[in-house]
Each structure stands twice: as C-alpha cells, then as structure tokens.
TrEMBL record:
Residues 10-243 form the ABC transporter domain. Gene3D superfamilies: P-loop containing nucleotide triphosphate hydrolases (3.40.50.300). SUPFAM superfamilies: P-loop containing nucleoside triphosphate hydrolases. This is Bicarbonate transport ATP-binding protein CmpD. Transmembrane segments: none annotated. Keywords: ATP-binding, Nucleotide-binding, Transport. It comes from Arthrobacter saudimassiliensis. The gene is cmpD_3. It comes from the Bacteria. PROSITE patterns: ABC_TRANSPORTER_1, ABC_TRANSPORTER_2.
Length: 278
C-alpha cells in the first residue's frame, strides 16, 4: 500500500449501518474502515447493492450510522458537515426547477451565510470552471442532462469543500459527455486541491479517475481491497486508456469486483489474487 506523508482528511472507522426493515434488521455495512488523505482522489467500486450509497450518505452526515465514526479534519461528523459537498446521480432531482442556474449554485452559499458580493463571485467562478459561464440565467429544465450535471458539480465546487463526495454522478449521461465530465472533475480536483471520494459501477472509470481504488465486498460490506493506481498524474482519454498499465489495473480491479460479487464476507481471496498483493 502507498505510504502517505499527507495528513488524514477523512477517517471512517468501524462504520456499521443496520437498516430496520419490515422483515427485521438488515446489516448493509459492517465495520468499514479507511482513511482519505489530503488531496487524494479515491474511487469506491463494488457490486450493485453492496452499500456504496449507504456508505456515502453516512460519510456525508445525511444518515446516522449504527456504530463507528466518521471524522473530518479531526471533528466527528454527526450531520451535514461544512467542509463536505455531495453530488448525487440524479441531477434532475437535485436541482430546483423554479430557480435559475445561478440561484441553484448559490443556494448552499446563501444558507451558509456567505455575503452577497462574495456569493456572486463564487457562483461565476464555479460556473466558469464547468464551462457554463453563459448559462447562469437559465433554468435547469432548459439545459441538457450533461449540463444539469455540470450545474450540480458547480454547486458543489462553489461551496469550496475540502472533501467532495460523488455517488455515480455520470451514470445517466451519454459516453461522450461522461468522458468530458471525467476530465472536468480531474481538472477541478487538481486546481482546487480537493479530496474526492467517487462512487462508480464502472471499473474503467474508476481506474481512469483515481489515484486509489477501494473495492467493496458484497453486503454486509467491508473494504475488500485498496489498490493504488500508479498511472501518470496527467490523464488523457485516449492515451491513458490505451496504456498497458491501465489495462493491467483494469483487469485487477475487474477480478476483485467479480470476486466480491460471488464471495460471502470473511472468506479469503484466491491465492492468485492474494499473491498479486492487495
Ligand atoms: N432505506 C433502506 N432500508 C432498508 N434497506 C436499505 C435501505 N437503503 C438501502 N438498503 C439496502 O442496503 C443495501 C445497500 O444499498 P445501497 O443503496 O447502499 O447499495 P449500492 O451499493 O449503492 O447499490 P447500487 O450500486 O445499486 O447503487 C441493499 O441491500 C439495499 O437493499
Ligand atoms: Mg447506490
């Protein structure tokens, strides 16, 4: 595993989430532990239903954990924390249709008490960063899906979070837009020195985006693998994806996700994977 000299930004420790359902308690997440260091870009991959969204909601303070803790910059997270922003998959539902793009982006700043002049500046900067400098006066329903998702990203960026959490944010956009948004997020990450935790189903996307991929087990979920993505920092949709190392990492993450799908938590991995070193 990579040695980190940077400070721990986010610490998730023995996080457990048990849902109370009509048919009894259901343990979605079990004793999950990992750290994110300052400025790290990590992707979280795992089988459908493995608890990715559950985990992200607990980290964001939008849902209480059953036990364990989430600590941001040394402070326990017990509700929506100031230094964290979230981008969800369903951009359509995350923007208010009766508010202009500017008003949507500025809403968290307004509720956070940022003065009007500074608000305007930060909104303009964030919209510029996502290439929507001219769309501030429009309404979300006047924009394409990819543009709406960029508005949601701008809203998160405008609040200048130290940690950005993203839950399959590009699952509903077309492949070309998705590639553009991936590069946009990498650029924003580099420019703003944010720490990003990005949930995705897509193994290629996880390897392309991240410096580190965390593979979840199937439910009840623990971190099954923590894989360092040792690709050059500058990524390019064509060059990076055709790099031999990209292919190797992609194969490794793929095999581990396949293993997670079929494995009951607690069983050890096949020798071939263990030897490859997780
Ligand atoms: N509110 C809830 N009440 C009861 N069970 C829930 C609730 N929300 C999620 N679950 C269960 O917890 C498990 C994890 O769900 P979660 O949505 O976190 O998975 P996920 O990894 O995000 O899935 P996907 O890849 O499909 O988005 C699933 O088995 C799901 O049925
Ligand atoms: Mg989910």
């Amino acid at each position: 595993m990579t040695k980190h000299l940077k400070k721990v930004r986010l610490r998730v420790e023995k996080l457990q989430k048990i849902y109370q359902t009509g048919s009894g308690p259901f343990e979605a997440v079990r004793s999950l532990t990992f750290d994110l260091h300052d400025g790290e870009f990590a992707c979280l991959v795992g089988p459908s239903g493995s608890g990715k969204t559950t985990l992200l909601k607990c980290i964001a303070g939008l849902m209480g954990a059953t036990s364990g803790s989430v600590v941001l910059d040394g402070q326990p997270v017990n509700g929506p924390a100031k230094g964290m922003a979230v981008v969800f998959q369903e951009y359509g539902r995350s923007l208010f249709p009766w508010m202009t793009v500017e008003a949507n982006v500025g809403l968290p700043l307004k509720t956070g008490g940022v003065p009007k002049a500074e608000r305007a500046e930060r909104i303009a900067e964030a919209l510029e960063a996502v290439g929507l400098g001219a769309a501030g006066g429009k309404y979300p329903w006047q924009l394409s899906g990819g543009m709406q998702q960029r508005v949601a990203i701008a809203r998160a960026v405008a609040s200048r979070p130290s940690v950005l959490l993203m839950d399959e944010p590009f699952a509903a956009v077309d492949a070309q837009t998705r590639a553009d948004l991936e590069d946009l997020v990498r650029r924003i990450w580099q420019e703003h020195n944010m720490t990003i935790l990005f949930v995705t189903h897509d193994i290629d996307e996880s390897v392309y985006l991240a410096e580190r991929v965390l593979v979840l087990s199937s439910s009840p979920t623990v971190i099954q693998n923590d894989i360092a993505i040792d690709l050059p920092r500058e990524r390019d949709q064509l060059l990076t994806r055709s790099d031999a190392r990209f292919g190797e990492l992609r194969a490794e993450v793929y095999e581990r996700v396949q293993f997670a799908k079929t494995n009951v938590t607690g069983q050890s991995e096949p020798a071939r994977l263990v030897e490859a070193g997780a």
